[in-house]
Amino acid sequence: MSSDHSTYQPTSGFGKWIDSRLPLPRMVHDSFVSYPVPRNLNYAYTFGGILMVMLVVQLLTGIVLAMHYAADTAIAFQSVEKIMRDVNSGWLLRYMHANGASFFFVAVYIHIARGMYYGSYKAPREVLWILGVVILLLMMATAFMGYVLPWGQMSFWGATVITGFFTAFPGIGEPIQQLLLGGFAVDNPTLNRFFSLHYLLPFMITGVVILHVWALHVTGQTNPTGVEVKSKTDTVPFTPYATVKDALALSIFLLVFAYFIFFMPNFLGHADNYIPADPLKTPAHIVPEWYFLPFYAILRAITFDIGPIDSKLGGVLAMFGSIAVLFVLPWLDTSKVRSAVYRPWYKLFFWLFVANAIFLGWLGAKPAEGIYTPLAQISTLYYFAFFLVILPVLGLIETPKRLPNSITEAVLAKKAGNGGAAPAAASPETRG
Amino acid sequence: MKKLLASIVPAAMALVIGAGSAFAAGYPINKPREIDWSFAGPFGTFDKGQLQRGLKVYVEACSACHSMNLVAFRTLEDLGYSEDQLKALAANYEVEDGPNGEGEMFTRTAVLSDHFPSPFPNQEAAAYANNGAAPPDFSLLAKARYVERGFPQFVFDIFTGYNESGPNYIYSLLTGYQEPPAGVEVPDGAHYNPYFIAGSALAMAQPIYDEQVAYDDGSPETVDQYAKDVSAFLMWAAEPHMEERKQTGFMVIIFLAIFASLLFLTKKSVFASKEH
């Protein structure tokens, strides 16, 4: 995986010359051509590549949009509309960028769910996982600030509500909020610094993505069996196998993305953001973008005081905690078995977790009143119980199914026709 | 903040005059009626005749109160008008320009590059003249109004490609004025309309009546037809590149579908010799 296994053979004179000075072609060859990947990767493993492409799409469209955008509260809204109406293909750039943010999150949530299902966070991949959570946090900050830039009603009021979270912290809260806003309320300084940070953070994401991929190439990928690569027969070279599979998944992902860009461009946005920001008129329902709704539901679920922590601070802590808990996930899961395929109970709780997260998203879009509040509280309880109770306890009491001896064995057993992902206990060890 | 300080007019909040708070669920009382628009669906296009009639309704009935300040006269070429026709239309409007060489602002006749001028000098004047509720700008209205569809309808909407919430809402509001039912109290200066998105009554009185605008193409001169035409026109005003978008999208989808099919075959042949 590292250069000591390198199979790169420069053929041309220039290739040999550059290889002994800056072996960049060797690095690319070793990372994306000869790099061995488990032979049994399924389509859930294609989202890393998809996310790389989405990051590039967002960077390219964003850089061009920034050439036409004006970060000034007096003209920000009109400058966006100028992009939509007068800039050549401006409507396409903006719809790609706005829907691109949504599809970035679609891909990242699937990517994270895959990591959780197949236990990708377990040793020796803890750092790889933590870097991923850092990317998620940076993405959330970037997306939130990007949503403020068009300076519509939801931009303004979303920024007001979210920066208001920080006032919940005693003492330090208000100074933090004022630092974020550049004043006492969301106004021109806020818009300017959000624009600056919205341009900066994607490059920080790119940096962490490089570390993430580096860490991945040190440990190698997991695979649906969760059994580590043991021999050469367990792997295939990245090119052509993973390349073509990633490309196929990417083109299907882009097909769905294109459907939204061209035929449903405003479906994932909020209509109120086509109304210019008005500090005197509060929208009936202030809701964040869909990809923040589960966390918004957790925030609003805490309606009661816990000792010295009032409900406002409690909600903010719960919301930040719902992300923070991901950082320690590798140490919360006590099971030695990685893949949910061999963990019947974990599989059940995992799918419950996914359903619960979607349900939280739906609750986040509902007003925080009536039946919705207790439902959000139950859902929030399950969200945290999954990490803090179920994962630690399950690893101790669950009896996993028998693991295959190797990836090759699992693949050939599946071929032999027992259909299920779990191989028969007596599957013969055969040739690679 | 200037804006905030200048417009302390409490009335800015008074768009909703109805007794109910905007937070209360249940508005609009009636779901918008759904019209079969020519521009709906993946291949939908604008009906130019309808857009021209809609423009006429806007100019003659709406523009006295509602601005449309993001729409330039030149863009009305999309509606099928010639440059000369548009110059003549623009010449009906006066816009402020300047300062001139002497430092004075002056008014001049509008030209093609000008946008529709606002009927009021500023938001405050607009609110003051309209019972406290400034009439909203029309440029983006058709994309700025969305009545919640609820679960699971909003999921189905992805597959049916439902993007016509805005024009359906505008049409329903314009045709929805009626006497309040017994027991419903409507405050002074408000007008009952069960299709209004944020209350039971709104500050705007019924803005258009039968035979108010003359059509020269034989279309019925009814509130119903006026409402349809102006809603279609507002959809165009909010999304002038819609047809281009759908045409481009069709080609993109065809390309990606072929590309994905070829990749699928490639993938099959690459993996044919390898169990996975």
What are the SSEs and their pairings?
The complex is a heterodimer of chains A (432) and B (276).
Chain A: H1 13-19, H2 24-32, E1 36-38, H3 47-68, H4 76-85, H5 90-117, H6 126-148, H7 153-164, H8 173-181, H9 188-219, E2 235-237, H10 238-263, H11 293-301, H12 311-327, H13 329-332, H14 344-364, H15 372-397, H16 407-418
Antiparallel strand pairs in A: 1-2
Helix pairs in contact in A: 3-5, 3-9, 3-10, 4-5, 5-6, 5-10, 6-7, 6-9, 11-12, 11-14, 11-15, 14-15
Chain B: H1 2-6, H2 48-62, H3 83-90, E1 94-97, E2 106-109, H4 123-129, H5 141-144, H6 153-160, H7 165-175, E3 191-192, E4 201-202, H8 223-238, H9 242-271
Antiparallel strand pairs in B: 1-2, 3-4
Spell out the key features of this protein.
heterodimer, A: 432 residues, mainly alpha, two-stranded antiparallel ribbon, 16 helices, 2 strands, 62% helix, disordered C terminus, B: 276 residues, two-stranded antiparallel sheet, 9 helices, 4 strands, disordered N terminus, iron (chain A), Cyt_b/b6_C (chain A)
How is the biggest beta sheet of chain B arranged?
2 strands, antiparallel
Element pattern of chain B in H and E: HHHEEHHHHEEHH
Instruction: Give the amount of beta strand of chain B, in percent.
Output: under 5%
The average pLDDT value of chain A, as a whole number, equals 93
Q: How big is the Rg of chain A? A: 24 Å
* Oligomer category: heterodimer
Going across the biggest sheet of chain B, name each strand in turn: 1-2
What overall geometry of chain B do the principal axes of the alpha carbons give? globular
Largest interface: A-B, 49 and 52 residues
Low-confidence segments of chain B: 1-24
The total of beta strands of chain B comes to 4
Beta-strand content estimate of chain A: under 5%
Instruction: Going across the biggest sheet of chain A, name each strand in turn.
Output: 1-2
What would the average pLDDT of chain B be, to the nearest integer?
90
